[in-house]
Specification:
Blueprint (H helix, E strand, L loop, with lengths): L1 H19 L9 H18 L4 E6 L5 E8 L4 E6 L3 H5 L2 E9 L3 E5 L28 E8 L2 E6 L5 E6 L2 H8 L2 H15 L3 E4 L5 E7 L9 E7 L5 E10 L4 E3 L4 E3 L2 E8 L5 E5 L4 E3 L1 E2 L7 H4 L8 E5 L11 H14 L3 E9 L4 E10 L2 E14 L2 E9 L13 H7 L3 E7 L9 E6 L6 E7 L2
Antiparallel strand pairs: 1-2, 1-8, 2-3, 3-4, 4-5, 5-6, 6-7, 7-8, 9-10, 9-18, 10-11, 11-12, 12-13, 13-15, 14-15, 15-16, 16-17, 19-20, 19-26, 20-21, 21-22, 22-23, 23-24, 24-25, 25-26
Length: 445
């Protein structure tokens, strides 16, 4: 019995010692740790002497970039790459750094970031949700000269990089607008841009700098394979003062991670991969995809259109004389040519559609054909003027133009103009006389 009482007493002593020796895991209260992190984020944002360059992909749309300078009065001055106003004119609003489920950066007055969140569909966003983007961001981490937040609702990474003095000066001088205009002009003049990842193999480079929800602020790389199949990759992009940044870690294509497009010199543009290797962007005189593979009912193009009274410049064809006859006929009858297009309506039927205007009213003259495609040759048959109107048979399409397409066969090919500004011209070359071809801008409708 004495032994039992001894062990019970010993047990109480041990338990008492364990309670008295407990040490709290954290040496600070949660409120103290939260205050320290708020101070860290606030100080980091305001202490950058030249401000920040920020990038933000949206969930539903493309990507966007900003310049931001935070002050100690909870004011932020910014530029954005959305449009001519946001890229050329600074805007000031307010921000807060606060504690919620974590430390948060909140833009609580309307600014350029708010455009991406606007529920009224401003700037092309969807009604109610805009581009599915945030104005409240949760602090993630600081890594060197970069501070990273995550969108509170849509979980997109909002990355801020310390700007240099030169970058700050360039933003404040309005150069972001100028740089975007230069990039846009380059790709407008070089519609068939490409790089060579493998020597001799051309990979198309197609950026879309618009704010279109489905396709805007994105970059696509496309390669036509030897079997005429197409490989492609797409990523979201944003325009900073120095480059077109490829977001979300870059565009992985053919095992290479492409991270940006930037000017190598004043006139030479290049893509760069993660290792810093450069790929000069050149231009092909015609699209990289053969016209016979592009021109299909469900292909990249299904129509060849002449807009207005003038043919695309820099091209000589027997068709030019027929077009002159058509325009002369309209001039005599006080009519205005709006457009002519040869279009594949489905897998078997094609149409020639002529739209014209008289006295402010718009009219259509059209005829249909059955077609068969064999490799690069399209053959028309079963010519049938439209029964929905009488314009075709009442002289609004001259006889020589009608006869040009009746029971005719054409070789389908791209047309090269002597004018470098003219591109994406599709042609139907008359079999038996390849100097005679109908041509116009390749379209999809």
């Amino acid at each position: 019995m004495k032994k039992i009482l001894f062990y019970i007493a010993l047990l109480f002593v041990v338990v008492g010692c364990e309670k008295n020796s407990y040490v709290a895991k954290f040496d600070k209260l949660p409120q103290e740790r939260a205050a320290e992190q708020i101070s860290l984020v606030s100080t980091t944002l305001t202490a950058a002497p030249n401000g920040w360059i920020a990038t933000l992909p949206t969930q539903a749309g493309g990507g966007y970039a900003f310049y931001m300078a935070f002050d100690n009065e909870q004011g932020v001055t910014m530029y954005g790459d959305m449009n001519a106003t946001s890229s050329g004119t600074s805007a000031k609003s307010y921000y807060r750094v606060k504690q919620d489920m974590g430390t948060e950066l909140v833009f609580d007055t309307y600014n350029y970031i708010s455009l991406l969140n606007d529920p009224n569909g401003t700037m092309g966003g969807a009604n109610k949700i805009g581009y599915s983007s945030d104005v409240e961001f949760t602090y993630d981490k600081i890594a060197g000269d970069t501070i990273i937040f995550i969108g509170k609702k849509y979980r997109q990474p909002f990355k801020l990089f310390k700007a240099t003095a030169a970058q700050q000066t360039s933003y404040l001088s309005g150069n972001l607008k100028t740089n975007i205009e230069k990039l846009t002009a380059f790709f407008a003049a070089n519609k068939n841009s490409y790089i060579e990842i493998t020597p001799g193999v051309k990979t198309g480079v197609t950026p879309d700098f618009s704010n279109t929800l489905a396709n805007g602020k994105r970059l696509e790389l496309t390669t036509v394979n030897p079997d005429n199949s197409v490989s492609s990759g797409k990523a979201k992009i944003a325009n900073t003062i120095d480059e077109v940044a490829i977001l979300n870690g870059g565009l992985v294509y053919q095992g290479i991670v492409f991270v940006k497009i930037a000017w190598k010199s004043a006139t030479v543009l290049a893509m760069y991969d993660r290792t810093g290797k450069e790929y000069i962007i050149n231009n092909n005189p015609v699209p990289l995809l053969d016209f016979k593979n592009a021109f299909k009912f469900n292909g990249a193009y299904n129509g060849i259109m002449i807009s207005g009274r003038n043919l695309p410049a820099g091209i000589t064809s027997g068709w030019n004389n027929l077009w002159a006859q058509q325009i002369a006929s309209y001039d005599l009858n006080n009519a205005t040519m709006e457009s002519m297009q040869f279009r594949l309506m489905n897998a078997n039927t094609a149409k020639l559609e002529v739209w014209f205007v008289i006295g402010g009213s718009r009219y259509l003259a059209d005829a249909s054909y059955t077609y068969v495609i064999n490799d690069d040759v399209i053959t028309l048959s079963n010519y049938l003027p439209s029964v929905s109107n009488t314009n075709w048979n009442n002289g609004w399409v001259v006889t020589n133009v009608k006869n040009y397409f009746i029971n005719a066969s054409f070789r389908m090919s791209w047309v090269t103009s002597t004018d470098p500004s003219v591109s994406n011209i599709g042609g139907l070359y008359k079999i038996g006389d390849l100097t005679n071809f109908y041509y116009g801008r390749a379209i999809k409708n």
